[in-house]
Design goal:
The chain is α/β, with parallel strands linked by helices and 543 residues long. The chain is 33% helix and 19% strand.
């Protein structure tokens, strides 16, 4: 069925699903935590074969210790949750990934490949019913703050109103707030401002390229005064006390009170570890660069890796950040500066994850003392992956494993206690969140929504499942991820194929070998079939 017809069916569904007002206690609350640019460098996932930290910390004991320093609070949540060790985004860019997740329509169908404007300016998404919007129409009080959709505040751009948080449709009460560690120029530019950063607020690393957003250094602002920490504290107060107040992003006092007769959906978006990686020194101290095994051999390894990439788009996506970084290192210290610059950049990314985890701790503490604890489902996700030197690049926007592999946790107090702390190794997509949450709310899944209800895996993490996923970055560029392989097809005709069982870091491109021509053809046919799926496919088939 054409996409406009699916959207019409979804809107008609809102008219016929009867809200269960007055029965809040029978319906679950939801807390959704989005952590920007969080890949799978998290404590529950350090043992994944493609986790690049396994190359950086080759000693298993050292890696385990890094995990304890990195995300102890996320690990606390994981001990109460089902962790999906092989979760992937729909697109390795913030806006398209989040729009697909919360809107239910993947980028190759919506055409929303970038985030230059709010998604409702896209004709295919103008009338889309988002996940929080759907819950709002069915009696949930929907509220949130931070980076949940692509941005968190409404802007006027070239005379056009950009309702980035979708406050007109998705939220009963949206709180406009700035985000991050509020100590860097790059973040100001990300928010559409160009105000100078006082030197007293940050010190950039000598290895930082100082190239737009790609900067890293030390913030001199106390943790408790950062936007992300205060936003998490607001969410924590709302969960524990039922009310919270804060000064919003326009300088106005704002209070939100949870209605006693409605279930609630609370969205919290933490900005770090999004660039720039500027965080207080205490988080950098957790990851001494002397513990990292980044040497000339690793530099050669990632450099040799890219020799068999197809010409064209694939090589363009390598970007210039790695080159910029090593050039800065060489300028300071000669050839030896290359590895020191790489270590410093990775240290700042890890410290940014640890900072986000520290903010998260407030929310987990609040959940444990909340009167809603036993009726609140919690889901936490990163919006995509990130390459931190693997594939000789520092960036997300690509179709390789590192750019698309992310973190997904689902805590449900209704789940059997024996499932808490378990790990599911089935392939799942962030696209599966919308249908899973709608079904958990006791609602029909809207007709336009792509993705599968994860309920079978939440009941049995080893249940049979279709282990095949799609990722898209820009028009005509797609990756098919199966249980064993990653196949990439570029719009310019370039092809890549990796056997991830033997080659988890995607070093050897089998598509460049004529002996694998039949395999390439078979995976391309499978990709073509996947691209032809409509949303009805997911309602009429079982995993």
């Amino acid at each position: 069925m054409p996409l406009p017809s699916m959207l019409l069916l979804s809107r008609l569904l809102l008219l016929f699903v009867i809200p269960l007002a007055g029965f809040a206690s029978a319906r679950p609350n939801f807390v959704m935590i989005a952590i920007d640019d969080l890949n799978h460098y998290t404590t529950p996932h350090l043992d994944q074969p493609d986790n690049f930290l396994r190359r950086v910390y080759s000693d298993p004991k050292r890696l385990a210790e890094i995990g304890r320093r990195l995300t102890p609070n996320l690990q606390r949540l994981a001990s109460q949750s089902l962790s999906f060790s092989r979760a992937y985004c729909a697109s390795a860019l913030c806006g398209p990934s989040r729009t697909a997740l919360l809107g239910g329509i993947p980028p190759h169908l919506s055409g929303y490949y970038q985030h230059n404007e709010h998604f409702r300016h896209n004709p295919a998404l103008k009338e889309v019913v988002t996940l929080p919007q759907y819950l709002k129409t069915q009696g949930w009080f929907t509220t949130g703050l931070g980076k949940v959709f692509h941005k968190q505040m409404v802007e006027m751009r070239d005379g056009v109103r950009q309702d980035w948080p979708d406050s007109d449709y998705s939220w009963t009460r949206w709180v406009e707030r700035r985000v991050g560690a509020n100590a860097d120029q790059g973040m100001a530019e990300h928010h559409g401002r160009s105000d100078p950063v006082p030197a007293a607020r940050r010190t950039l690393s000598p290895y930082s390229p100082n190239d737009g957003l790609f900067t890293f250094g030390v913030s001199h602002i106390p943790v408790e005064e950062t936007f992300d920490f205060q936003n998490a504290r607001f969410a924590a107060d709302l969960i524990a006390k039922g009310r919270a107040s804060i000064i919003d992003g326009r300088g106005q006092p704002t209070e939100v009170v949870l209605p006693p007769d409605q279930p609630f959906f609370l969205g919290l978006g933490l900005f770090l570890p999004h660039l720039p990686w500027v965080v207080p020194q205490e988080f950098l101290d957790r990851f001494p660069v002397a513990e990292m095994r980044i040497d000339s051999e690793l530099v050669r390894w990632v450099t040799d890796d890219i020799t068999d990439l197809p010409a064209g788009t694939a090589r363009q996506w390598l970007g210039k950040d790695f080159d910029s970084l090593i050039a800065t290192g060489e300028k300071l210290h000669g050839p030896g500066g290359v590895t020191e610059a790489w270590k410093s950049a990775l240290q700042h990314y890890l410290a940014s994850i640890a900072f986000a985890d520290h903010c998260l701790g407030q929310v987990i503490d609040a959940l444990e003392r909340s009167p809603h604890r036993d009726n609140t489902v919690v889901l936490l996700w990163g919006d995509h992956g990130w390459n931190l030197g693997d594939k000789r690049r520092f960036r997300k926007q690509a179709l390789w494993e590192g750019a698309n592999h992310t973190t997904l946790l689902w805590r449900d107090p209704a789940a059997a206690a024996g499932h808490h702390g378990l790990v599911c190794n089935r392939l799942v997509s962030l696209q599966d969140i919308y249908p899973t949450l709608a079904a958990r709310a006791g609602l029909p899944v809207p007709a336009h929504v792509h993705g599968r209800d994860l309920a079978p895996l939440l009941a049995d993490p080893q249940a049979p499942w279709e282990n095949v996923l799609l990722q898209t970055y820009n028009q005509g560029n797609h990756a098919l991820r199966t249980a064993t392989h990653r196949y990439i097809s570029y719009a310019d005709g370039g092809r890549e194929l990796y056997d991830l069982r033997a080659d988890p870091f995607e070093i050897t491109n089998l598509a460049a070998d004529p002996a694998h021509a039949a395999d390439v053809a078979a995976f391309h046919a499978q990709l073509t079939a996947f691209l032809a799926r409509d949303s009805a496919f997911y309602r009429k088939t079982t995993p």
